[in-house]
Amino acid sequence: MKKGFILLFTMMLTVGVLAACGTSDKANKKSGDKKVLVMATSADYPPFEYVETGKSDEIIGFDADLAKAITKNLGYEVKVKDMDFSGLVQSLKSGQADFVLAGMTPTEKRKKNVDFSDIYFTAHHLIVSKKDSGIKSIADLKGKTVGVQLGSIQEGKAQEINKEVPIKIENRNRIPDLIQEIKSGRFDAAIIEDTVAKGYLEKEKDFAGFTLSDDPKEAGSAIAFPKNSELTAKFNKELKKMKDNGELQKFVVKWFGGEQ
Ligand code: ARG
Predict the structure, then answer these.
(1) Tell me, which fold does domain 36-122+220-256 have in CATH?
(2) Where in the chain is the domain with CATH 3.40.190.10?
(3) Ligand 1 pocket residue status of 85, Cβ below 6 Å
(4) Distance CA 12, CA 126 (A)
(5) What's domain 125-216's superfamily in CATH?
(6) Which ligand 1 atom is at minimum distance from the Cα of 110?
(7) How far, CA to CA in Å, does 45 sit from each of 89, 142, 183, 217, 240?
(8) Does ligand 1 come within 6 angstroms of the Cβ of 63?
(9) How far is the CA of 244 from the centre of ligand 1 (A)?
(10) In which element (H, E) is residue 77 found?
């Protein structure tokens, strides 16, 4: 009798778990009354999104704050999923996430697969290398090994540079890996966004960097959504409010320490 009961109970549990699994990879589910939105990001990108080593494993940064503020105003809860940058667009296409906040630039190519909000932050590319490498201009990169994050627009930038001066392009999944490869001498340089590179330049005293003068429109960040998501318009409205009432600027000062 007891055995039968346990078996029945186990079966019920299994059915429950299976049912939960069936919906668990569908983003935008409910927990209690509040709807939960799943945000996907690549938490290797301080001060946009990162985990502070030695502290909690919470993902913090500009994008995390922005996500919290917008979803709160819209009456949602937010759950953050960490993954490699190159998997983010796919996470939206497959319904694993409701939006991506990852310092992502709205490129024409990505726009074929996902929708973007308005731009919330603009940036430039920086070439980072060891001070003693003598790399101070694009011309100095001739014949050098240059690292970029896999799937990032910096990859495209490297290909552009390669048309001007021949370089060897290498990619890695995570930004700290690029830094590590420069340290170990496997890479001569890396292309990283200025706001993110700045943080590493402060830490790595024997590193230097120079900014590529190009159209800043090319490297801004926006929030990505699945195609035709109704969230895009809702998020844009909140973003506009936050731009107008100075809340966005507060986050800029908090995380980037200055003017945009
Ligand atoms: N803005 C660049 C891009 O969209 C790099 C973004 C990288 N973001 C990250 N979380 N690692 O390709």
Answers:
(1) D-Maltodextrin-Binding Protein; domain 2 (3.40.190)
(2) 36-122+220-256, 125-216
(3) yes
(4) 56
(5) Periplasmic binding protein-like II (3.40.190.10)
(6) 4
(7) 17, 28, 18, 20, 24
(8) no
(9) 26
(10) strand 76-82
Is 45 near ligand 1, meaning CB less than 6 Å away? yes
Task: Give 26-71 pLDDT, tens digit per residue.
Answer: 565 555 556 999 999 999 999 999 999 888 899 999 999 999 999 9
Q: What is the pLDDT of residues 229-251, one digit of tens each?
A: 999 999 999 999 999 999 999 99
- Ligand 1 site, residue 224, Cβ cutoff 6 A: no
Q: Is 34 exposed, middle or buried (0-12, 13-18, 19+ CB in 10 A)?
A: exposed
CA of 201 to the centre of ligand 1 (A): 18
Contacts of 110 (CB under 8 A, 6+ apart): 89, 104, 116, 224
Q: Is the CB of 104 under 6 A from ligand 1?
A: yes
